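Fold it.
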Amino acid sequence: MLKGKTAIVTGSSSGIGLGVARALAGQGANIMLNGFGDTPETVAKLKTEFAAMGVKVDYNPADVTKPDQLAAMVDAAHKNLGGVDILVNNAGIQFVSPIDQFPIEKWDAVIATNLSSAFYATRLVLDAMKTKGWGRVINIASAHGLVASAGKSAYVAAKHGIVGFTKVTALESAGTGVTSNAICPGWVLTPLVQKQIDAIVAKDGISNAQASEKLLSEKQPSKQFVTPEQIGGLAVFLCSDAAAQITGSAYSIDGGWVAQ
């Protein structure tokens, strides 16, 4: 379905981003992988995996909080992969603390990584997508882009911001063949979430399985993790012709979290 298209997926060396990149490559899209601090061995393994899928693949270590590094990654995608047809803004970090104890530098880092980076990247690719008459901007938001949780002020602010930014991008691209949508996952067993599970294990002195169940029970009625593969499947749908008139939307994939 996506043969001949090229996708940049930020934060795609693991977790949700890798799941999305695999799903897009499975439909024939060339992939620009991105990670920060990945080892040469990890990069080589990823390139081998994607090349075996029959698509072109490149890797760029851009720090998504640095506009000049994102610009260099976009230039590399044009030079090595033929352009940018799909942009998936996925890179994110988390920090948990009450507002009155939240370190300012941590706030700045979360906003820069989770929100500002999407603006930096989108502004670099939007004009070319409009000129081409086809493009997909997919922002990985969160259930926390729609509802809040205590202790996550920066993350919630950033993810609410991503949903709003998605809508503005959709309005400014309406009628051009470019769409902009957000995916709002609930709990996904990524390295980011595993850290929160580890914290519960340490605090409560319970097993990993018990901590996982406790985490899920607090928010996610299905009591099952969303998988990166499921999120990748939704991203593929949003790139399809069937989704050509879906824009400015925020799709929950959260086991019923925000239905409560």
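The chain has a mean pLDDT of 96.
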